[in-house]
């Protein structure tokens, strides 16, 4: 029995050391060297250096003076990050989208962009398509007393082209830049 137990325990300790200590520390060290910003949470700081959020996580913005993110099924809480799990045939989903569309609708601008009505798979996607931001331009410019062209230029400066997929705008970064604009 002892002849079987000793090698088994030795192998178990060795594997715990490799997979539980050596490998995680190695991967963490490489990530810190190669991608320090991403490894530390892609934190977004304001002009004073205060952390305002992560460029990877959406935040709730309310009021007419801010660009709004897409809806979140988990109220933007990272602990409950998930989709709503409502099927397209679910009446609750249709009701929520209809109510949101009525609330966000702007006269003479056409239908509300779909990205502003639907949640992302994680419920925390910080990006919107440029069209969804443009839909909000007039409201934000009016609330801040700025010309629409000024806010449009700010939008243009914040359009990102990912390696794969259509152009997007990080709403948190755009709102931080908006806060820096002089009225």
TrEMBL record:
<keyword id="KW-0406">Ion transport</keyword>
<keyword id="KW-0547">Nucleotide-binding</keyword>
<keyword id="KW-1003">Cell membrane</keyword>
<keyword id="KW-0813">Transport</keyword>
<dbReference type="Pfam" id="PF02669">
    <property type="entry name" value="KdpC"/>
</dbReference>
<comment type="similarity">
    <text>Belongs to the KdpC family.</text>
</comment>
<comment type="subunit">
    <text>The system is composed of three essential subunits: KdpA, KdpB and KdpC.</text>
</comment>
<keyword id="KW-1133">Transmembrane helix</keyword>
<keyword id="KW-0067">ATP-binding</keyword>
<protein>
    <recommendedName>
        <fullName>Potassium-transporting ATPase KdpC subunit</fullName>
    </recommendedName>
</protein>
<keyword id="KW-0630">Potassium</keyword>
<feature type="transmembrane region" description="Helical">
    <location>
        <begin position="12"/>
        <end position="35"/>
    </location>
</feature>
<keyword id="KW-0812">Transmembrane</keyword>
<keyword id="KW-0633">Potassium transport</keyword>
<dbReference type="InterPro" id="IPR003820">
    <property type="entry name" value="KdpC"/>
</dbReference>
<comment type="function">
    <text>Part of the high-affinity ATP-driven potassium transport (or Kdp) system, which catalyzes the hydrolysis of ATP coupled with the electrogenic transport of potassium into the cytoplasm. This subunit acts as a catalytic chaperone that increases the ATP-binding affinity of the ATP-hydrolyzing subunit KdpB by the formation of a transient KdpB/KdpC/ATP ternary complex.</text>
</comment>
<keyword id="KW-0472">Membrane</keyword>
